[in-house]
Amino acid sequence: MEQLHRSLNLQYLRCHWIGASGTDCAQNSAQWILCIIPADRTTVHATTAGSSARADQHLSVSAPFIAIVPAWARVELVNDDDPRGLVVALRWARLRETARHALGTTTCEIPCWFKAWDPFLREAGDTLSALHANSSPDPGCLAAFADVFALHLVHRYGHTADTRDTGTSLTQSKLSVVEHFIGEHIAQNIQIEDLAALLHMSPSHFARAFKNTTGHPPHFYLTTERLRLARSLLSKGSLPLIDIAARVGFQTQQHFTAVFHRYVGCTPRAFRIAHYVPKDQA
Questions:
Q1: Could you say which of 18, 62, 145, 171 is the most buried, measured as most Cβ atoms within 10 Å of its Cβ?
Q2: Using CA atoms, how far apart are residues 184 and 86, in angstroms rounded to an integer?
Q3: C-alpha distance across the termini of the chain, in Å
Q4: Residue ranges of the HTH araC/xylS-type domain (predicted)?
Q5: Helix or strand or coil: residue 141?
Q6: Across the chain, what does the average pLDDT equal?
Q7: Cβ distance 209 to 169 under 8 Å?
Q8: Residue 72's closest CA among 95, 93, 60, 89?
């Protein structure tokens, strides 16, 4: 896939398609950070590149998440579906300037090597791509996007979550974010790291806080939510078991059957026979 039309470049914001050949900001890596915004069906690996003096780092990110990594990271596609999404590079000087003028702070520290659920940046990336798909980049428009990205990054990620929130439980609003995300993405392969990223927390801190709040570890809650939906589908329709398994997030019917039997006490087929209610009797 070709780079964005005439590649979007400004002295403090640069943008190219994921998987496009290199970016010149990497030569001055300490001065830039990268915001990776994968498109649907695209998975990206970001890994430590180059110097052996750097500690090994790596992460994988796919929609609906974004990732923030240093400019010296190697960004590679796992699959080659189109569209691929964007890599937006932002100069550190812009972050500091934005923080000073908009937020009144003289320091600006954005953590790197993390992924987060950030619908705002995903929407901004889509808009940035669409605006410049068939026209020459306008410097004023790029400058506005640089301010938008910088202000959002500084405001939301200016401190690590574990520094901002050292509590051992989740507020109701944070728990609602997790529950809503699970409900919206129940068919997908949700990892604990994904749930932690929703709240910009480390996986260990999130798991501890979640269990303290709900009384159960995140994996148990996720599994019971999958099975709750499965029981509803089994009792209300004749959808094939393999389709139900896929809809509630199991990779195979065999795994679905094994987990269902372990938690519910019978197989999905036996549950359907015992609980199915025809529509004319519902």
A1: 145
A2: 24
A3: 52
A4: 176-274
A5: helix
A6: 82
A7: yes
A8: 89
